[in-house]
Every structure is written in C-alpha cells, then in structure tokens.
Structures
1.
Amino acid sequence: MTELKAAVAEIAEQFAVSQEKLQQGVDLFIELADRGLASDEDVHGLPMIPTYVNTIPTGSERGIYLAADLGGTNFRVCSVTLAGDHTFKLVQSKNPIPVDLMSGSGEELFSYLASKVASFVTEHHEAKETDEKSKFKLGFTFSFPVTQSSLNSGTLLRWTKGFDIPDLVGKDIVSVFQGQLDKQNVPVDVVALANDTVGTLLSRAYSSGAVAGGKQGDTLIGAIFGTGTNGAYPEDIDNIKKLPADVVKSLKAKGVTQMVVNTEWGSFDNKLQVLPNSKYDVAVDALTSNKGYHMFEKRVSGMFLGEILRQILIDFHQKGLILRQYPTFDKLPHRLRTPWELDSEVLSLMEIDDSSSLKATELTLKQNLRLPTTEEERLAIQDLTRAISKRAAYLAAIPLAGILVKTGAFEKGVHKEIDVGVDGSVVEFYPGFRAMMRDALALTQIGDKGERRLHINIAKDGSGVGAALCALDGA
Ligand code: ADP
C-alpha cells in the first residue's frame, strides 16, 4: 500500500461510526433532551425550545397565508393557498442575502427583508390589496436559536451559519421585523415565528394526510439537513417541565396536550462525550464564530462537509502525500488555501463519480478549486469524501432514533408507521445520504424492524408552507 493509501485508510477508519457509538449517541441524546426539557439553566442539556405551536395540521386547512424564511443563504418570501385537501398552491420569490448584510447592523438586514416582502406583495397580490384594509398574515421562519414566550415573539440567543450581527442578539426578532414592515407601509402582520424544522414538520403533516389516517403514519419529526441541521417534534406538555405553570394551566384549559419542541440538535453533545473529534474537526471549529457550540452540526451539515475535506487535503499536502508540485502552502491554488471555498456540492459530485480515471472529479476540482490532480490523488479524494459523508449520515441517525425511542413512537399502537419530514439540500441532493442514514438507523436501538416502519420523505417547500401553517395557528 502506498503512503497515501495508508493515510486515507487511517482516516476512513477514524471517521467510521460504530454501532456502539451510535447507540451511545442515542442514549446521550435522550439524556440531554430530557435535561433540556427540564430546565434552561442546564447548559449541557439540549435547548429544546418550546414553540407554542400546538396543532399538527390534518390537511383540511384552507386560506391564503404569507410566509417568509431567513435560512442560511437565501431569504424566501411566499404565499400559500391551502386548498383543504392536502394540496396547496405556492408562489415564491428567492432573494440571495448580500454577504455584507450578514455582519452589518440589524436595521440594515431587516430593512432589506421588509423591502423584499413589499415587492413580493406588490407583484403577486394586488387583488387582495384592494380587498379592504385587511393585512396579510405572515409566518416568519427564522432559522436561528431563539427563545419564545408566545407564538409571535422570540428572542435571538446567538447567531449561527456565518451570520454575526451583535446588535440583534437578545432582541425580539418579530418586533424588529414588524417595525421595518410598518416603516415601509407593507400590509403584513407577522403573527407567528416558526423555525424551519417546525415548518417542515407541519408541512409534511399537512401534505401526507398522516393525522387524517393516511398510509404514511403520523408525522413525528421534522428535520433539516441543509446549511445547518436541526429537528422538531411534538412533545407531551407534561414532559416539558420548564414551561411555566401558568402557561401549562392555560394550555390545558384549552384542551392542549402537546407542543412542538424545537430541539436545536445542532448543539447536541457540545461537550464531545460521544461525537468524534478529529484534528480536522478541531480546525474547522476554530474557524467559526461560535467555537465550541453546534458541534453536532459541524460534523453533519452542508456548511461544514466541504471544509472538513479541505482541512484534510491541506494536512495531506503538508505531509507531502498529495499535490507535491506545490512546494509550500503559499503556493497552493488560492481557493484551496481559502476557508469555506470547498462547497459540499462539490463533494456530492465526487461521491458518485464512476467515470474512467475519475475524469468528472478531475473537471470538478479544476472548475471549483482550480486544482489539477492525478488519478491517484482523485481516488484518495473520493475515498476521503465518502468517509466524511458517511460519518455525517451515520451521525444524522442519532437524533432521529433518539426522538423515536424517547417518545416511544414504535410502542404506541396507533403509530403503525412513522413519518419523518425532511428538508435541505444535503438530505435532498447528496447521493446516498438518506440510504446511509437508514443503514445507521437500523443499527440503533430502533433496530431494523423500526427502520422498516419509518418513512423519510422530503417535505417539499417545507419551510414556506409550514410557516404559513403556523400563521394559521396565530390567526
Ligand atoms: P439552507 O439550509 O441555507 O436554507 P439548503 O437546504 O439549500 O439551504 O442548503 C444549502 C447547503 O447545502 C449549502 O451548505 C450547500 O453547500 C449544500 N448543498 C447544496 N447543494 C448540494 C448538493 N447537491 N449536495 C450536497 N450539498 C449541497
């Protein structure tokens, strides 16, 4: 075996997630989820944020609602017309977020967002505007950690995914947004704050007809694997011990028994009790503005997979294993030297390259990184890519299995089949990601029997429709 092959094999071994680790991960997930439900003071518990969303749609809901979504890369505005028969019509606009706004002032960002809502309403909803003075109700999907004390307010805890606008931390995001909308005279009321995972859960439930007795079974989890990763599920109110007693009392008086909890599982195991922590993970973490946080996300989601590979390539170059034509780091192609330049989309192309001599990979690396490679190097890079993606998909199984075990989903007779709604480019487009996740799920405590009863489906336009469904709750 060549030195390069041996080094690649060592990484593949180091990145492999054993059945034992998976099961330890599931146990730890349940423990940290319970601790997070009990108290916000426990810094090692998962955030487990109560969302004040109490109703899982059945598919019979009707009406026109707006939704806006600030995710990672884009700001989407849409209107959703619910037909009441599990179907909907959606009109959407997608606006890339200018990079300078991601670290500017709060006012700049939200003034920009409000202006995009204004142009959307003008372009698509003239008819409704003439319809008296009534305002559109909007559900706002804000995919960053917030604490909520009602459906239409939420305090930003910290930024993730490359955003860094300190003046908004600790502020109520809904009132900041509403303030800018009012300033620009946009006829829109922000009535609900939804996380994208909550939206994914609700939209999958609306579309699948699960609660109404559809074949797919109850929709129990909404999960995102995109720029970041996160999940939400309905929890019994009695188990959310940190909810204030008066809130529980008033909810119970209304007959409410469950509330959707936003787990913020991106920060699962920040203490690294179970998660792998290679020197490459350490290097990636050091480049982020939220060091030591979101450690699960940093091993699993789209923003980080490419950077992990870039770190390995740089290390291999330094050890003289690859790219020997470049004598020093400074001489490497600029893009390879630059953090975050290697997109996980590139990994998804290399993952399944079966062309002779990996010609497709050769082209991809040339186009994206201006990097010429030998066949031996490409074979190594493909194996490294597969080690990174497999580790990500295996780890992704941990919170899913954790929630299924914790809620006793498979033990309850009514849940013959379980439906998981997923969204995000990684789970949607990364070749084999879902299949690898399923392989790992079968190795967890749910076993292959549980895995077979599980349906993992893309929640199409999940966050938009889901946020609209939250607006319905707040109407
Ligand atoms: P967001 O999470 O920002 O709302 P997406 O779900 O589209 O949006 O996720 C974007 C992330 O997914 C980026 O990190 C990008 O690198 C990654 N990505 C986009 N396309 C692919 C693909 N085909 N394969 C793997 N990752 C992808």
Note: The radius of gyration is 23 Å.
2.
Amino acid sequence: STQVCRIRINGMTCTSCSNTVEQALQAIQGVQKAQVALATEEAEVQYDPKILSYNQLLQAIEDTGFGAILIS
Ligand code: 9UX
C-alpha cells in the first residue's frame, strides 16, 4: 500500500542540504519515493504505512540536522 505525505523542512540553504535529506529518506525501508524541493522547503514522500509511520520520516530528517514538520 502507499501513503503520501508532505513535510516542511527547515534549515536547508543549498542543494547539498536538500540532497542529503532526500537520500536519507530514500534509504529508509518502506519509502517508495522521496523528493525534496529546496525552493519550497518541502518533501513529498510515498511510503508503505504498513512498514513505517510518518513520524519515522520526520525523525530521519531531524537526524540529518534539519527541522521537520508534517504538512499533510
Ligand atoms: Mo550547503 Mo547545507 O553548503 O547544511 S550542505 S548549506
């Protein structure tokens, strides 16, 4: 199954920042697709809700040193 969520990411200032966050999300078991947009400071993530919850996505972003707030 697939769930989509959008996350506001705080603190990104360059494409290296957004690539770091994007790769961290893509490396998580259960994440099917993750795109991070620097310009809008948002991530859109498709994931299997049977494998993980959005809280783990927020935690993974915070572990990279950035702030994360669920949008939808
Ligand atoms: Mo870019 Mo981001 O030089 O923490 S990697 S600012």
Note: The mean pLDDT is 98.
3.
Amino acid sequence: MAKICLCLTGKTLAQNLEVLDKYRKYADMVELRVDCLEADERFVIRRFPEQAGLPVILTIRRRIDGGHFNSGEGARVSILSRGLAFAETDRRRNFAYVDLEEDLEVPGLEEAVRTFGTRIIRSFHDLKGITNVTQRLKAMCRVGDEIVKAAVTPQNMEDVFTLYRAVRRECYGMEKIVLCMGPLGVNTRILAEHMGSCFTYASPLEENYPIAAPGQLDPKDLVENYRFREITAATRIYAVVGYPLKTTFSPRIFNTAFSHEKIDAVYAPFPADNLNTFLSLARELNITGISITIPHKEKIIPHLRKASGAVASSGACNTIRWDGQGWEGINTDARGFSESLLGFMGKKNFRGLKITVLGAGGAARAVVSEIRRLKGKCLILNRNAVRARDLALVHGCKWGELDSQSLDTMERYSDIIVQTTPVGTFPHVDRDPFEPYHFKGHEMVMDLIYNPERTAFLARAQEAGCEVLNGLDMLIRQAKYQYRYFLGRDFPDEIMPRISETPGN
Ligand code: NAP
C-alpha cells in the first residue's frame, strides 16, 4: 500500500522534529529536505534518522528542480556523503532512502549506500511540463533495486490524462513514484495507488512552514478526509470536476459517508479546464459517479445519453453517472436549494412570494427553475444582462442588469433574495456582489456560498435585521441526492452532525 511521506522543510532540525511530532500519526516516513536547512545545520544531519524514529529520505533538492540548493554539485555530494557516512548495522539509524536525480552520477557513494541497505530514489523533476515521462522512467530503471520518481507539472487536463494513461499502461509493475505538481495534480497525490506510486508526499499546512512542492496536501487531510490509508488500486473512485476548483467541501461529505458505511470508495477532486478530456480520464479510471461544478454544469449536457426533467427544465446538470453505455445526468442543486430554503422558512412552496435571484449561471438555473416550479415570482439580475434575459425568457421571469438601475424593481421583488454568484467566497471574502442594494430588514436572504460561513453580503443583511441562510445545508442536501444516485442507497443521516461542522478553508 502506498505510504505517506511527510516533507520536512524547516530551517533547523529541531523545528523539523517538532513538526514531525505533531504529524507523526499521519506519516509513514519523512523526507528531510536538507536544502531548506540553514547552512550550519546541513552538516549535522547524520543522526536525524535515529531522532526521527521513522524511515527518512535524504534529499538535497537543487534550484533547477524546484528546491533551494544553489552551492554547486561538489558541495551537494559532500553533504550527501556526510549524511550517509558511518552507516550502522542497525539500519533504523541510517537514512532509509536517498533521493538522487537522474543526471547525478556518484558511483562510489551509490555503491556504499547499497551496502548498508539505503535505497536510492532516482528522480527527475519537470517544472514546466510532462515531456517523455514514461520513456525517462524506463531509462532510469537501469539498476533493479532503485525506485524511480517523476514529479512533473501538467499545464492542463490533457497532460493529466496523458500521464495517467501512459504510466498505467507502460510502467505497470515498476517500483515508482509518479505525481503531478500544482493544483491540477491534486488527485495524483490522493490516488497514488491508482497511479501505481509507492509513496505520496505531503506537507504540513502550518504558518511559517514552507510547503515542499506546489499542490501537496496536508497529511491530516489525506488521512482523515481522503482516507488515504484505506485506498488500494481496487478502490472505486467518485469525483468532483470543476475549474479552478479551489475549495470544495464535497469530498468531506462523501468520504465521511464511505468511511461510516465501510464502502471501498474515495471521492476526489479533479480540476479540469477541458471537460471532454476529463470524461476520457473518467473512463480510464473507471469513475462511475461525478459531481459537476463551475464552469461545466451547462457544458456537460451535450455529453449525456439521458437527462432528468430537472436538467431539461433548468438547462444545468450537476450530477452524472455511467450507466454502462454512456453518461446520464440529474440536477440535485434544484431540490437541495428548495428543501433547504423552504425548510428554513417553514413553508411548503414559494406561492405569493416575489424573489430576486442574483446571478444567471449554473446554480441560478437550478434555483430559478425551482422557484417557478414551486409557484414563486422571480426577478433575475446578472452582470451579463443577456444571460439574465435568456434565463428569464425560459421561465417567464423579470430580468435586469446587476446595477443600480435595477434597484427599484428589486425592491418590489424582495421577499426573498437568493445570491448565486461566487462573489464573496474564499479567499476574496470582503467582496459584495451588489453593494448598491440596501437591505430593509424584511428580506429573507440566502447566499449559496458556504465558505466563509457568513459572506460579506449575508453579514450586511443580518445587520439590517434580515433572516439569513448560507449554502451549507443546501450543499449537504444535494450531496445526499447524489449519493443515492451514485450508490443506489440512502445517505447515512446519523453522520450529519459530524459533517455539518463549519468547513475549513
Ligand atoms: P457559474 O455557472 O460560473 O455562474 C456564475 C454566476 O456568477 C454568473 O451569473 C456570473 O455572471 C456571476 N458572476 C461571476 N463573477 C461575478 C462578479 N465578479 N460580479 C458579478 N457577478 C459575477 O457558477 P455556478 O455554478 O452558478 O456557482 C455559483 C456559486 O454558487 C459558486 O460560489 C458555487 O460554489 C455556489 N454553489 C453552491 C451550491 C450549494 O450547494 N451551496 C450549489 C451550487 C453552486 P456572468 O454571467 O456575468 O459571468
């Protein structure tokens, strides 16, 4: 099973040991990044494996490979030699691994470390792309007892797909580590087993403690949120796809349910600029259930073999599953929205209520169609007025631009205000989607954003005396429908209190 390697990037060995103690239960091994240490600390690393009490990789990463070491190869080999010298027969006191780049030839050192059981990780790093990964990995396998490693940087979903497919087909059975750096590669770190990697690297997300490489996850997140230690190559994958997909709470909902129900499955994020290519990757990885989010909710529809009534009426689809021959889709945002808001208000429908919806994107489509289905009257205001008009025409609503000229109409449609734009979400939490509107206090205000818990828009509404509701309850409700659609069984409601704790960033 793939191991979690905690990357230690502190300036001193003492700082690293402190961090290790905090994260010990989430780590199977550690990587001592000597290039991050202060100069005088680099010469006293020999005892670190014994102090750490876990297998340690000795790594001195050069600047050109994304590290910090810039003192030349002679100095690097000299520090490596000091770290590996005086090997002991008790191997736990030696470095368990040493990371040597593809182009570093130090036969004497390599021979010596092998004698004492230190394993060589032969690595290459590509900070700009994914060129020739499988060929390079095969060429690097010149000595049978080495582990080969490729850390590369995909530029788009096409690169991620190409890499998964090539590595799974051409490097099967090879003892290796292959990972994609940067935000596009987050799933390669979670699905190390599906990539055939023997380790995944993780960095503690601590203030003033540098992350070792872009895209690394916190080890606690890997273990507790993604259940990394239970994932095998046979674990079924469910996915959320969007772009840029910076923060999403859905993995926590699904993975907590999988854990509670003892289902061998993992729900992982797939940032994807290209939906077509992602769907090919989904077939490659046998992903059978997918949550669709910004900006793909409308673009997914032409890919569906079958679509529900809610998809047809809203023109947006947020949930798809593979039926053996093609993709079929539903929209769970619609029910999630109406059940959350009506439940909060203690009402059965929107009859007699005049409602303003801010935004005309994928989420607004579900919101508007649900308001109309449940007899409410609706005004749609959007930055792009044409989009507001197009949506309004489908559902028989009023529409306008999201500017001060719409204020009079909005005041007449102010029983409920539903904010569906991403404005105010983390990290730009100070932003307000419609500052010119002054709340009177009688409005019921719902913001679909749940991160932060209270947006600037909701805070303003609450200060004016309005009842307010964020999007977390809607998210959970719609995810429960997705769960049933994907797995054919009910969501375990008893885990709700655990999930409903405020999501972190
Ligand atoms: P989308 O399809 O990309 O639509 C975004 C909408 O917001 C568009 O109408 C867009 O206007 C508008 N917008 C974007 N940036 C803006 C800005 N700077 N100023 C004014 N308007 C702006 O996204 P979506 O799928 O509808 O999702 C929107 C939000 O709802 C996201 O924050 C998402 O996380 C949240 N959401 C929550 C739930 C839940 O369960 N709680 C479910 C779905 C969505 P233009 O047309 O002018 O570009």
Note: The CA atoms of residues 20 and 253 lie 28 Å apart.
